[in-house]
Amino acid sequence: MDKDLLLIMGIALAIVLPITWAIISKIDKRDKIKTNTGFTLLKKSKKNPTYKIYRYLLRVPFTKRYMNNLTRRYDILCPGDQKTAIKEAVKTFLVTFFISSILSYFLFFKNPSLQGGLVSILMVYIINNETVSILVRRAERKLLEQIVEFISNVRHNYYINKMVDEAIAMSLDSCGKELKPHAVKLHEIVTSNNVKDEIEKYNTATNNKYLKMFLSLCLSVIEYKDKEIDGRNLFTSNLEHLKKEVHIELLKLEKIKYLFSGVIFVTVFPCLALGVIKSYAVSMMPELSVFYNGRAGYLYVFFTYLVTITVYYL
Smallest Cα–Cα separation from 154: which of 130, 142, 170? Predict the structure, then answer.
């Protein structure tokens, strides 16, 4: 077995494992380590296929940390709702694994080569990272959209009974699945006998500043009572301002989404085109095969990948 074959086999084994490990490390650095108290797998869900997959992935050392980080990210979005967090984490893992497998097959395993291996490693890393980010950002946008509707419902219900806890309770039925765990938790906090400890737990479990602001407004009314300024209730006026801020945030996210929608493709396109350029150049001038298969050719390919990774991170 010659050195080239050993090199190809090494690259084949290294395509998914190191890249996924790098993704895990990056997720760890990006997210603040926040764990929701009491996040455990329900015994009654043992027969659920999603939980079976989740438990199996937790038993595998390589995927255990990856799943824990994915679950933590969704747990922050859905505090207290372990079923949704685990379901979304498993779905994200399956999507990224499927895409990575397809890319690895077409870019490397179908026609093994050193350049194909490098392209596979780079593409699996970028696609994996972007897929996780897209799915999480999509859930965050849905949450913001539901917060707007929730604030409107609470504001309307507060007009009716002038009670914050009742206004929140009456708005629970109209909440979407992303917001429902938050709304239930907010109602539990405002009706709790130990509000201070509950607030601390909730602030640790979520990083959504708008929900924290909403909770602060509710507690201030409960503690200091509502006031009337220029014929308008201060609480409802503050809710209207908060609603406008969430609208502005949604518009910003949509603008960023469309402005940078094609940036990733433009960034990685040179790497995808290297093989085509090489094949075309060699077919036109066979003498170029010496360049591409020599040290200068490998350095050229390596430099292109290095620039691509640098631009991607910038």
Answer: 170
